[in-house]
Specification:
The chain is of the alpha+beta class and 337 residues long. It has helices at 18-26, 69-84, 93-99, 102-111, 128-132, 158-167, 254-266, 300-304, 308-324, 329-332, and strands spanning 7-11, 31-35, 54-58, 89-90, 119-122, 139-143, 153-155, 178-182, 186-197, 200-208, 246-249, 271-279, 285-291. 28% of the residues lie in helices and 22% in strands.
Length: 337
């Protein structure tokens, strides 16, 4: 009987995936870690990935903040290479391309007929002032490749935007592409994130920003509930509890939930989070971010009543078993061969 091949977890962030590794270890799953920032591949071969039951992509688009921008583009090429060879990938090429292009995210939302803030995509900061005439302030400028709210700036009038352009202070992004988008202040200072797994609903949370004026709303970094209780997480960074962010479980209205699931399926997200807000500006709800790199909420059993990492591992083992075929029961059962 054939032995199951190990799962490969391809990742870059040093902290976010500790719960995943802990769960894999707890179940004694055969897996191998690959550090995306230190990886190389041979286009003439499949390399180690050719011996895996499943290649799980956990590459972060915010890697450029840690001096690893090149790994983002290498990951895109690697996923395309692996899929062309028929190697099964979880959050593969299509999901990662969408993850690393906010322009394509807006395009997808528009194509699906779902509400998204009016947007212009530009390839040079010098075009921003002209593009702003087609929109209504306040506006935000977003790098096409973001991650954790990085590089987003708000402008309340044309003069402040023009000054920023002239001074060269606007970050042009890793790929030089920027989005100019109408800004909708979230009603009650909160946004909703819907987590999905294999195109199905996992859970949803409402994130309250408190006094925070930033755009970094990573769920794994929110370490306090709305009643002030501290949350425990292996991924919770020092100082997160002081950032003013709080979180609670939330059930989205049906049409927004269905919209999020449609996005996940169309984007080929095997696991991902979709965010929306209720606008203080016009009272409407808008989808505004699609995340293939899903970082689950801290202390999830306490907050949402389930362990999403355990369910993710269930999905990985099921997919790995299906990919390997006969002899895969050792992986599916969570045992080392």
């Amino acid at each position: 009987m054939a032995h199951a091949r190990p799962l490969i977890v391809y990742y870059e962030h040093p902290d976010w995936f500790r719960p995943l590794f802990h769960e894999l270890d707890r179940r004694e799953v055969s897996y191998r870690k690959i550090d995306a920032a230190r990886h190389r591949f041979d286009p003439a071969s499949a390399g180690p990935a050719g011996e895996t039951s499943l290649f799980f992509n956990r590459m972060s688009p915010s890697a450029w903040k840690r001096g690893r921008a090149g790994a983002i583009f290498q990951t895109r090429d690697l996923l395309g290479h692996l899929e062309a060879l028929g190697i099964p990938c979880f959050n593969g090429y299509e999901a990662f391309v969408l993850e690393t292009s906010k322009a394509l995210q807006v395009s997808l939302l528009e194509r699906l007929g779902l509400p998204v803030p009016r947007t212009r995509v530009v390839g040079h900061t010098g075009v921003l002032a002209e593009a702003a005439r087609e929109l209504e302030f306040p506006l935000v400028v977003k790098p096409n490749i973001g991650g954790s709210g990085a590089g987003i700036e708000r402008f309340d009038d044309a003069e402040s935007l023009e000054r920023a352009v002239e001074s060269g202070s606007i970050f042009a992004g890793v790929d030089g592409v920027l989005l100019l988008q109408e800004y909708h202040s979230p009603r009650d200072g909160s946004i909703v994130r819907i987590e999905t797994l294999q195109g199905g609903y996992l859970y949803a949370i409402r994130v309250h920003m408190g006094e925070s004026a930033g755009f970094d709303l990573c769920p794994a970094d929110i370490c306090r509930t709305v009643d002030g209780s501290s949350l425990e997480s292996a991924a919770c960074p020092a100082g997160a509890a002081k950032a003013g962010l709080t979180v609670e479980r939330f059930t989205p209205p049906g049409w927004l939930l269905e919209g999020a699931l449609t996005i996940a399926r169309e984007a080929r997200l095997d696991v991902g989070g979709i965010e929306y807000l209720e606008s203080e500006r016009d009272g409407r709800s808008y989808f505004y971010d699609v995340n293939a790199l899903s970082n689950f909420v801290a202390d999830p059993v306490r907050v949402v009543g389930l362990d999403p990492t355990a369910r993710l591992v269930d999905a990985l083992l099921e997919r790995a078993g299906a990919a390997v075929g006969p002899g895969a029961e050792t992986v599916a059962a969570g045992r080392r061969p």
